[in-house]
Amino acid sequence: MVSQTPVGPVEREAVRLAAVLLFAGVLVTAIAGFLHPEGADANDHRTIFAIYAASQSWTAVHLGQFIGMVIITFGLVALFFALDIRRGWEFG
Fold first, then answer.
1. What is the rounded distance in angstroms from the CA atom of residue 44 to the CA atom of residue 53?
2. What is the distance of C-alpha 64 from the center of its chain?
3. What is the structure's pLDDT at 92?
4. CB 24 within 8 Å of CB 72
5. 29 with 73: CB under 8 angstroms?
6. How far is CA 59 from CA 42, 53, 78, 85, in A?
7. At what angle do helices 58-83 and 12-34 cross, to 10 degrees?
8. Which of 7, 22, 67, 76 is the most buried (most CB within 10 A)?
9. What angle do CA 31, 27, 51 make, to 5 degrees?
10. Dihedral through CA 50, CA 53, CA 58, CA 62, nearest 10?
11. Which DSSP state fits 42?
12. What are 10's strand-pairing partners?
């Protein structure tokens, strides 16, 4: 059984939550990125926007990328609180 006793200023469970959120966010973003429609040079706007317009998955892909970034943001916030850097600012 894993205890939730703090290890110095860092709690193991809080860091584990942050790591899982960060990994999940990167994974969701990567999967959505792999499904992004491609075909022409991204700077050939006429052609690439025509490909995007014909794509049935464009909305789902970008929603997946957005959700992945939200999960990463939550992971970074969780890591901030898990590390509790304010304790390091105490002098004396």
1. 14
2. 11
3. 44
4. no
5. no
6. 18, 10, 28, 39
7. 160
8. 22
9. 20
10. 80
11. T
12. 7
- Measured on CA atoms in the order 34, 37, 38, 39, is the torsion positive or negative? positive
Alpha carbon 1 to chain centroid distance?
29
- In the chain, the DSSP E strands lie at none
> Rounded mean pLDDT of 56-63?
91
Length of the chain: 92
How far lies 85's CA from each of 8, 18, 33, 90, in Å?
12, 15, 33, 10
pTM above 0.85, yes or no: no
Place of tokens 């790591």: 19
Residue 7 β-bridge partners: 10
Predicted confidence band at 91 (pLDDT cuts at 50, 70, 90)?
A: very low
